[in-house]
């Protein structure tokens, strides 16, 4: 068995990994510290760096100032619907680009890649005008319909499908009478599960954390997503940062759960796919 480096090299590697872990975890730790203390504790010099006992009070203040559960389910609905639609349409398009020939295939894919370099903020005005002309402002449709397909999602699924799905398997399925959609449903989807897991996690987190676009198109407080609702906790002249951090912590916990559950499934499927293919 090949040596994995000298003991000193392994120690240095583990130290660097530990430092990177501490740097990555510290923002979450600091958020919890701020959420469990008072705003005056946050402004102390030196600052409070240990957990306090004010978490329940801060959570109570959040629940008094915003309709957290309604905003939570609004965000959950949008994130789940967007994730399901992205997984379906992007995997279908990616599979088509990877394994089928059709006119203007390379040109369309090049154009698709070109859209990835355009900043999303540059299209906000045009997107708002389109949504307004469709009378969709003040509904969830502007959050769902434009997000049903993403250029990165198609690119990611296409790259994965090129190596994960063998042409011989597709030819055999065609001989058995499989049409395009059945090839996708019965052949492609089982092979694409690891890629779907990654794309699903990324899409859900992105939809959950979206702030600017929902702020523009949602003009009814009953439809506010969590990010928009939490922004209303900021006062005009003063802000209770401990309350804001408590609300942020409450909004972050579902993402942490989704990440760990989804990442575990993603790694398991990736390992299974490596053995299978």
Automatic annotation (TrEMBL):
GO terms, biological process: transmembrane transport
Compartments, as annotated in UniProt: Cell membrane
Main location: membrane
Domain ABC transmembrane type-1: 72-262
Keyword Kinase tagged: no
Transmembrane regions: 12-32, 72-95, 107-130, 136-157, 183-208, 241-261
Coiled-coil annotated spans: none
Any one annotated GO CC term: plasma membrane
Domain of life where this protein originates: Bacteria
Keywords tagged on the record: Cell membrane, Membrane, Transmembrane, Transmembrane helix, Transport
Keyword Cytoplasm: no
Family statement: Belongs to the binding-protein-dependent transport system permease family.
Record's protein name: Sugar ABC transporter permease
Originating species: Reticulibacter mediterranei
């Amino acid at each position: 068995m090949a040596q994995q480096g000298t003991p000193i090299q392994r120690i240095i590697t583990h130290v660097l990994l530990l430092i990177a872990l501490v740097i990555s975890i510290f923002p979450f730790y600091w958020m919890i510290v701020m959420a469990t203390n008072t705003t005056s504790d946050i402004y102390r010099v030196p600052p409070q760096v240990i957990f306090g006992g004010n978490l329940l009070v801060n959570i109570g203040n959040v629940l008094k100032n915003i309709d957290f559960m309604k905003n939570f389910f609004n965000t959950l609905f949008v994130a789940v619907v967007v994730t399901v639609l992205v997984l379906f349409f992007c995997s279908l398009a990616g599979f088509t680009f990877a394994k089928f020939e059709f006119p203007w295939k390379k040109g369309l894919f090049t154009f698709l890649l070109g859209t990835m370099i355009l900043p999303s903020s540059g299209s906000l005005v045009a997107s708002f005008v389109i949504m307004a002309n469709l009378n969709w402002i003040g509904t969830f449709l502007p959050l769902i319909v434009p997000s049903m397909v993403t250029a990165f999602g198609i690119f990611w699924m296409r790259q994965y499908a090129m190596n994960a799905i063998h042409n011989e398997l597709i030819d055999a399925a065609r001989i058995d009478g499989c049409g395009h959609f059945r090839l996708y449903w019965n052949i492609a989807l089982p092979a694409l599960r690891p890629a779907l897991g990654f794309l699903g996690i990324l899409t859900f987190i992105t939809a959950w954390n979206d702030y600017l676009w929902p702020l523009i198109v949602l003009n009814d407080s009953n439809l506010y997503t969590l990010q928009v609702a939490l922004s209303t906790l900021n006062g005009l002249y003063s802000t209770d940062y401990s309350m804001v951090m408590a609300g942020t912590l409450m909004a972050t916990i579902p993402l942490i759960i989704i990440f760990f559950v989804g990442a575990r499934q993603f790694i398991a499927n990736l390992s299974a796919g490596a053995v299978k293919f």
